[in-house]
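PROTEIN DESIGN WORKSHEET
SECTION A - STRUCTURE
LENGTH: 165
TOKENS:
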């Protein structure tokens, strides 16, 4: 796949998400790191975001609840270069009915090469990294080149475009 570069801004757009058993951990982590988080823009899935609004001073942009679209809203924001960091405390010990959405969110965060933290320890390493407060270039898929190459590949491999008209 062809790649291009995206520059992460100094002021990061951070997505915070937690499954229900992990919400206390995420809330405690956000409270402990409120000062570090304050200079950045915080997005969250609905329940996580409203808990953060109630228990911290952070001006969180709360999306829909994760299981009814919030995970996918975050996936869209990641794929369109509008999220720089994903902090997702997912529960390794229980299944959720919206597993496919969780998987899609993790897949897009990986595909679009953004840093992901899945627990308090990795989140601490991430936000206390010297890279966190800088602008930073990341390699990302070149969406336009990817689309053009697919269109020409499919056309060359037997799609008779006149049948599509
Ligand atoms: O379900 C979630 C992540 O998969 C999180 O959603 P809520 O923050 O609405 O609980």
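SECTION B - SEQUENCE
RESIDUE ASSIGNMENT:
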């Amino acid at each position: 796949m062809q790649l291009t570069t995206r520059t992460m801004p100094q002021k990061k757009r951070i997505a915070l998400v937690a499954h229900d058993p992990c919400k206390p951990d995420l809330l405690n982590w956000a409270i402990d790191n409120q000062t570090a988080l304050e200079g950045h823009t915080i997005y969250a899935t609905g329940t996580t975001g409203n808990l953060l609004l109630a228990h911290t001073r952070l001006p969180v942009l709360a999306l829909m609840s994760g299981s009814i679209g919030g995970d996918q809203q975050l996936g869209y924001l990641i794929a369109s270069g509008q999220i720089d960091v994903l902090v997702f405390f997912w529960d390794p010990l229980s299944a959720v009915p919206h597993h496919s959405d969780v998987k899609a969110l993790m897949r897009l965060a990986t595909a679009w090469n953004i840093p992901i933290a899945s627990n308090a320890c990795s989140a601490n390493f991430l936000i206390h990294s010297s890279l966190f407060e800088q602008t930073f270039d990341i390699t990302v898929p070149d969406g336009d080149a990817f689309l053009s190459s697919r269109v020409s590949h499919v056309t060359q491999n037997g799609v008779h475009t006149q049948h599509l008209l």
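SECTION C - NOTES
The longest helix spans residues 143-156.
Residues 78 and 109 are 6 Å apart (CA to CA).
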